Amino acid sequence: MKPLYTQVILFSMVISCAVVTAPAADNKTASAPDITWVTIDDPGFKGQMSKYEITNAQYAKFLNDALAAGEIVVDGAAVRGKAGPYQGENYYRTDGPAYNYIDAVDGGKSRISFDGTTFTVDSGFENHPVTFVSWYGAMAFAACYGWRLPTEWEWQAVADYDGSYTYGCGTEINSKKANYERTIFPHGTTDVGQFGAFGYGVADMAGSVAEWTSSRWNPLYKLVVYRGGGWHCGANLCEVSRRDLLIPGAMWPNIGYRVCR
Question: Of 145, 158, 165, 132, which is closest to residue 257 (Cα–Cα)?
Fold first, then answer.
């Protein structure tokens, strides 16, 4: 039986950002982005989960779809919802700054720009995981195509495989298995899947970018749970049992997400 973990760690660094709204699942106006799905049969999760974290290219497609459907507005660098459950909230910021850490001199910078009519991805970053996306923006993306974010316990059930994994990449973590802590990559993030797949066949559940889940820690305090640790996090932050909290409008250079159905 898999253990249930109750440890809660609340970061003191909480970014307060406005956030976005997205089209509902029954208002789809375009085909969904290509997703590589992994079918999983685990006591804690039965269904399909995206093998990789959502990329800049996939998120840019969503922004273009939502823009065409009149579901978002762009206000300077802020992409906000125009209708729906997250109306007025920020989904994404196109001016998310780089974070410098060890060898990362351009770490986690937002890679999607808007020219007034179209969202495009900086060349070479199409397959990097999207950063500077809020929980609202992640939830809106999933709802647009009839998917959802995993709950934190579903995420953990997949990440710890048969219950034996300490990290999403196995019982041990190192620089060959995950992009974490003392990253050697100048952009912080790397192409999704670059470090291989583990457990049920999913990639980057340790390091790369931490991942939003659908779980709210306490609706009263408007905090949501994210998991997995990012490219500049220590090994302890990448443990499958680790729970971290942020306000849903936070947008950081090392937090993204994956989807399930």
Answer: 132
